[in-house]
Design a protein that fits this description.
The chain is mainly α and about 350 residues long. The chain has 14 helices and 4 strands. The strands form 2 sheets. A two-stranded antiparallel sheet has the order 1-2. A two-stranded antiparallel ribbon has the order 3-4. The longest helix has about 35 residues, at about 5-40. The structure holds heme C (2 copies). One heme C (HEC) binds near residues 47, 115, 241, 263 and 279.
Length: about 350
C-alpha cells in the first residue's frame, strides 16, 4: 500500500493540521489582545517625556541647525546654557506643580510646544530669538527683551508665574536661547523659524469636523478629555494636555487658531513633519477650531493690544478696528478680513 494512504500517516497528518490550526488561533488571540491593550492605553509607542522622535529630527536639511555642542563654553557660562536646555526640556521637573525649585507652572514643558528643545524646523524653534530681541511687540505695545518674552510663555502657555528675572533659572533659559541663536546674524529669521501656517480656508473653520479628526488622530495620545497623560515619574507629561485646567490659557499663542493650525500641520500627530505632514490644511484648521472651543483657564488680557488696529486677524477677543464679528475673527474666513485691511 502507498504510505501516503496508510491510516497511521493520515492520522499523523490530521494531528499536524490540528496543531497548526491551534497555533494559528493562538497567534490571532495574541495579536488581538495586544492591539486591544495598545488601543486602550497608547496606540503608538510612547515617546516618553521630552523626546521628539528621531523621525522628526532628520527633516532638517536646508534649514537652520543649532550650533554644535562643542561651542558651549566651559565654566559657569556653559553650565548655565546646559541648565537652560534642561529647563526647556523638562520644565515641570523644576518648576511644575511638584517642581524641585519652585511650583509656578502647569506641568507642561516648554519643549512640548518648542520641539526638540526649540531646535526643530517649523517646530516653533528658538533660532530667531537671539537675533531679533529686544524688539517691539504690538501685543504689549513695548520693546520686549528675551526675558519678557519667556515670561509671557510662563504666564500664558504654562498658565503660571515666571521665575524672577534675577533667578538662576531665568538667566539659564536666556543663556540657552542666546547660545542657540549664536550662529544667526542680527535681525535674521533663519529658514525653519516660525510656524509655517497653512493656506487660509475660504470658509469658517468647523469644530464639528475638528472633533472627528481629534477622535481619529489625536485622542489616542492626548486623551478622551484632552487631559494628556502623565509620564511614569508623575512629574511631567508623556503626552501633554490640549485643554482643561492643566493646559495653556486663553491668552496663549496657541489659542489663536492660525498658530495652532500651523504647529499641528507641521508636527502632529507625533511623527508628522513639515515636509511630510499628515493632516491636510483643512484638517489642521478644523482640529484647531475644535481644540480651542474646549474649556481652558482664562487670563485677564485687557492690557493686550492696546492699539486695536494692530490685533492679528485671528485674535479672538474684540473690540476690533474693523466691522467683522468676534466669531469671524476667531474662526474665519480670514480672507475678507485681510482684504479689508
Ligand atoms: C502651549 C505651547 C507653548 C508652551 C508650553 C511654551 N510656548 Fe513659547 N511660544 C508658543 C507659541 C505658539 C509661540 C509663538 C507665539 C506667537 O507668535 O504669537 C511662542 C513663542 C515663544 C518665544 C518667542 C519666539 C520668537 O521667535 O519670537 C519664546 C522665547 C518662547 N516662546 C519661550 C518659551 C519658554 C521659555 C517656554 C517654557 C517656559 C515656552 N515658550 C513654553 C507656545 C508655547
Ligand atoms: C503619538 C502620540 C500623539 C498623537 C497621536 C498626537 N500628539 Fe500632539 N503631542 C504629542 C507629544 C508627545 C507632544 C509633546 C512633544 C514633545 O514634548 O516633544 C505633543 C504636543 C502637542 C501640542 C503642543 C503641546 C500642547 O499640549 O498644547 C499640540 C497643540 C498637539 N500635540 C496637538 C495634537 C493634535 C491636534 C493631534 C491630532 C491631530 C495630536 N497632537 C496628535 C503626542 C501626540
Amino acid at each position: 500500500m502507498n504510505t501516503l494512504h496508510d491510516p497511521k500517516y493520515l492520522r499523523l497528518k490530521c494531528i499536524i493540521y490540528q496543531l497548526l490550526a491551534c497555533i494559528f488561533i493562538l497567534v490571532i488571540i495574541v495579536l488581538l489582545e495586544t492591539s486591544v491593550i495598545c488601543y486602550g492605553a497608547l496606540v503608538p509607542a510612547p515617546a516618553g517625556p521630552g523626546h521628539t522622535p528621531a523621525s522628526q529630527v532628520s527633516h532638517t536639511e536646508g534649514y537652520w541647525q543649532p550650533p554644535s555642542e562643542a561651542t558651549i563654553p566651559a565654566g559657569e557660562s556653559g553650565a548655565l546654557v546646559t541648565y537652560g536646555r534642561e529647563l526647556i526640556s523638562h520644565t515641570a521637573r523644576y518648576l511644575g506643580p511638584q517642581g524641585s525649585v519652585a511650583q509656578i507652572s502647569n506641568g507642561m514643558n516648554c519643549q512640548n510646544c518648542h520641539l526638540a528643545s526649540g531646535t526643530l524646523p517649523f517646530g516653533n524653534n528658538y533660532s530667531a530669538v537671539a537675533a531679533t530681541y529686544p524688539r517691539f511687540r504690538a501685543r504689549s505695545g513695548t520693546e520686549e527683551t528675551i526675558v519678557k518674552r519667556v515670561s509671557d510663555c510662563f504666564e500664558r502657555s504654562l498658565n503660571g508665574t515666571a521665575p524672577d528675572a534675577s533667578s538662576r533659572e531665568m538667566h539659564a533659559i536666556r543663556a540657552y536661547i542666546e547660545w542657540l541663536g549664536s550662529n544667526v546674524k542680527p535681525g535674521q529669521k533663519p529658514a525653519g523659524s516660525g510656524l509655517n501656517k497653512p493656506a487660509l480656508l475660504a470658509r469658517e473653520a468647523d469644530s464639528a469636523k475638528g472633533n472627528i479628526i481629534y477622535e481619529r488622530s489625536c485622542r489616542s495620545c492626548h486623551g478622551k478629555d484632552g487631559e494628556g497623560l502623565m509620564a511614569a515619574d508623575g512629574l511631567e507629561y508623556a503626552y501633554p494636555p490640549l485643554w482643561g485646567p492643566n493646559s495653556y490659557n486663553d491668552a496663549a499663542g496657541l489659542y489663536r487658531i492660525s498658530n495652532f493650525a500651523g504647529f499641528v500641520r507641521n508636527n502632529m500627530p507625533l511623527g508628522a513633519t513639515h515636509d511630510a505632514p499628515q493632516l491636510t490644511p483643512e484638517e489642521a484648521w478644523d482640529v484647531a477650531a475644535f481644540v480651542n472651543s474646549m474649556p481652558r483657564p482664562h487670563k485677564d488680557q485687557s492690557a493686550d493690544w492696546q492699539d486695536i488696529r494692530t490685533k492679528p486677524t485671528d485674535y479672538p477677543f474684540g473690540p476690533y478696528a474693523d466691522g467683522f464679528s468676534e466669531k469671524q475673527h476667531k474662526l474665519g474666513p480670514f480672507g475678507p478680513i485681510e482684504a479689508a485691511q
